[in-house]
């Protein structure tokens, strides 16, 4: 069997049959205390001010756009862009009741439909892991940011994902395969170098680790049970290994001893004046 991993659905949500899953996934993630904690930190690092014009690349349901609009006030503008028409339509619906200065665009991160230097701040959260050409997308973010403006990207590093099982080799094979289902499963730890190569100033990185002991909630998003069956179909693990692995994870969940963890990297820099 082929070991080439299938691409994960967030790469192009509009082609997926169960688009509501991706909406639910973003809603769950945005409601978690961990996500709320790191988002507060990203907003602090961006140092958004009243009157700023800010861009969220890969805005999803638009939660961050609304939060940024609160910070920049009525004299500013918060703009969201997403490749998925499903997400943009949902974001527009969710912002209808607000008088905040927000707008949403359907578009590609690799070719942003904005003029050079249009924004004071540029932000992307869990977007670059899904992009086929992250360097091109970063170049676009830099292009549309004005001199002295800040850029921030936060990503989970899927090569840091750990799950406690006694089947170390099976788990390692599965998690490596799972990371490879993403266009850029390891992008989080590569962004510091990329920011430096693009000559951004004041580049800094922070890390935050999400630890979960709630299998049901975690699996509703991560879909470990289905993922290892996909790995089995691709010859990464055997049927016997997958059966044993799933049985252990489900037992650990029942006995309240399940644990997994994933580290996020927040990378921030400034466009030289």
- Broad shape: globular
Per DSSP, the total helix count is 10
Order of helices and strands: HHEHEHEEHEHHEHHHE
First-last Cα distance: 53 Å
State which percent range the strand residues make up: 15-25%
In CATH, what is the class of the domain at 9-157 and 186-211 and 263-270? Alpha Beta
What structural class should be given to the helix and strand makeup? alpha/beta
Oligomer: single chain
The whole-number mean of residue pLDDT values reads 92
Corresponding CATH architecture of the domain at 9-157 and 186-211 and 263-270: 3-Layer(aba) Sandwich
CATH superfamily of the domain at 9-157 and 186-211 and 263-270: Vaccinia Virus protein VP39
Task: Write the CATH fold name of the domain at 9-157 and 186-211 and 263-270.
Answer: Rossmann fold
Low-confidence stretches: none
The neighbouring-strand order within the major sheet is 3-2-1-4-5-7-6
Q: Give the fraction of residues assigned to helices.
A: 40-55%
Gyration radius, in Å: 19 Å
Report the count of strand segments.
7
Characterize the largest beta sheet: strand count, sense, and whether it forms a barrel: 7 strands, mixed
